[in-house]
Amino acid sequence: MKIIQIICQILRVKNVAAKTASCQDVVLIRVRTEDGLEGVGEADASPEVIKAIVDAPFSHNIACGLRGILLGENALETERLWQKMLRRTQYFGRTSVTIAAMSAVDMALWDLKGKKFGVPVHTLLGGQYHRRIQAYASVLFGRDGAETCDIGRKWIERGYRAVKFGWEPMGQSEALDLELVRGAREGIGESNTLLIDAGCVWDARTALRRAEQFAEVRPAWLEEPLRPWDIDGYVWLRDRSPIPIAAGEAECGRESFRPYIDRHAFDIYQVDPSRCGFTDGAYIRARVEEINARLCNHCYTSPITVAASLHWLSTCRDAFIFEDCVDDSPMRHDLTLEKFQAGPDGFIEVPDRPGLGLTLNEEFVQQYLVAESGA
Could you give the domains of the chain? Predict the structure, then answer.
């Protein structure tokens, strides 16, 4: 399984909106081997930055581009190749966007491995506990409580029994924060699951006050109330909050997650395969299960990461809910021939074909392609 080619392609919609949604562009990694197989992966980060990390020429032994590190290697040796990439990029990597770039390559290598042996990635990861998982519709807040209420009602009418509202305009004022979450609860009804994503807007004391105020509408979690680097703040908040604290989507790889796990900083650890890969994702899964915390995926990109997240989360013992991005961007829905979205009962099926179990829509790739290297 000798690697002979690593292609990096950037796809982008024509009009990128000023919103916190990473499904408006895609950085696609395609790893090809001498026996004619191809594995695909993606990273959730600035596509041009990822491409630069893949394309970079040799500078010195611990400042190398990923393509140069991997060409000629055996694609099946995923753990060794992860460690090689980590070592050879340590002057610009370790816990940063370089890990996200490595994760896209790692995802493609696991896709290749599954295709080589004719089994889905979840089998390679140790076996699935779940064939289908309840999904939550992941959406942004409306401008106010009334618009947020309408958004929530729409997704409940489409079959979801859980909805997460996030980011702007949360954090502008106490009054608006309360209006938004009350509107969210009104829109989805009393019997459905409400999740709140603050979008990293408060200090710890303000976050605790909001958690106490939000408790009246019974959210199942409060996500990213603090800046990602505030480890002490998260530990302090989790010990006091009446609502479970979820976070982790900003972290890249095991070293980034390690201090949060060691200090039991979250109740729910949100892991994104497009920022952690399968190799480090398996390590993080084991560590979080060891401390009896819960795991969920983070995913707001294309069907590639949706499929990867389903494979990974299905192997998590206590997986209970899946982030299902419902943005209407074509990048979210049309990059693959397969559709990965919750059904009318609010559950999403785990792919069961070899590798990631997906097929790229090559016409779509060519339509939205804005940059390419390694072809």
Answer: 3-118+362-373 (3.30.390.10), 124-349 (3.20.20.120)
